[in-house]
Amino acid sequence: MFNVRSLGYASDLLLLSFEGNVIDHGDVIQTITEDNQDYYWGNFLVFPHPPKEGDHKRWLTRFKELFSDYPGVRHVALGWDGIDGEVGCVEPFTQDDFILERLAVMTVNADTLKRPKSWHEQVIVKTLDSTEEWEAATQLQLTRNEDIPDEEFEPFKREQMKWYRRLSEKGYGHWYGAWLDGQIVGDLGIFFGDTFGRFQAVETHPDFRRRGIASTLVYQASQHAFSLHPEHTLVIVADDDSPAMRMYEGVGYQVTERQIATFKRP
């Protein structure tokens, strides 16, 4: 386990260590995803404390030093360890066009998971087991794009889904699809460490939102995860005070930490 207090960052680092490089330099932890250098949160730094006065320049210099051999890393992505959402001296970053992310780290155990009130009776939830199903899930994930040009987003997302498939096939976890009348309408992944499972990329097709599909999918995927690892804690990270966060609360997930990160686009 990496020497961080944050369960959110600990689970991030664990997943990235399965195939990528996670390097503890002493002053900072670096993650490298060489096959997908456009992946912001696959190529980032985690510092041991919130930024202090003068850290804006120091941290950017350190990022450039550590990623100098990776020309595809054109962004800057930074996190800092902590559990209470302390932002520190962040103004120099936001004044430099960095985007601040305030995240809720949510957890549930087998005995606190609950069937949500928002439920879809017809949805069938199952793990993916064919190339065709993985392509359907990838196409669904491509609908998630909000403000990145398609010519950049699609290669990134396809590489990410290939990575998730490799992790699944190596036994690190599972990818789940929610199917309705033969169409995939939701998907997500769960991958496991020794004591926790971490959700990835929870998504619902835009045409099928607000029908209870996401909550049904999260609940049934959680049930399956607990059938395999009954003593584990399941972890989801969501935007703080978001509709997704409230949906997860309806399945029994509760906020146990708050996590801060910031990034700057190329």
Quickly describe the structure:
By secondary structure, this protein is of the alpha+beta class.
Written account of the structure:
- There is one protein chain.
- The chain has 266 residues and is of the alpha+beta class.
- The protein folds into two domains: 7-103, no CATH class; 124-256, Aminopeptidase, CATH 3.40.630.
- The protein has helices spanning 7-17, 55-66, 91-94, 131-142, 150-169, 213-228, 243-249, and strands at 21-24, 29-32, 44-47, 76-80, 99-108, 124-127, 173-180, 183-192, 196-204, 233-239, 254-264.
- Strands 1-2-3-4-11-5-10-9-8-7-6 form an eleven-stranded mixed β-sheet, with helices on both faces.
- Helix 4 (131-142) packs antiparallel against helix 5 (150-169).
- It is globular.
How many DSSP helices? 7
Strand content: 25-35%
Name the CATH architecture of the largest domain.
3-Layer(aba) Sandwich
Q: How many whole angstroms does the radius of gyration measure?
A: 18 Å
Please state how the strands of the largest beta sheet are arranged side by side: 1-2-3-4-11-5-10-9-8-7-6
The low-pLDDT segments are none
Biggest sheet record: 11 strands, mixed
Report the count of strand segments.
11
User: In the CATH scheme, what's the topology name of the largest domain?
Assistant: Aminopeptidase
Classified in CATH, the superfamily of the largest domain is Gcn5-related N-acetyltransferase (GNAT)
Shape: globular
Query: In CATH, what is the class of the largest domain?
Result: Alpha Beta
What's the N-to-C terminus distance? Answer: 32 Å
Residue share in helix: 25-40%
The total tally of domains equals 2
Structural class by secondary-structure content: alpha+beta
Order of helices and strands: HEEEHEHEEHHEEEHEHE
Which whole number gives the mean pLDDT?
97
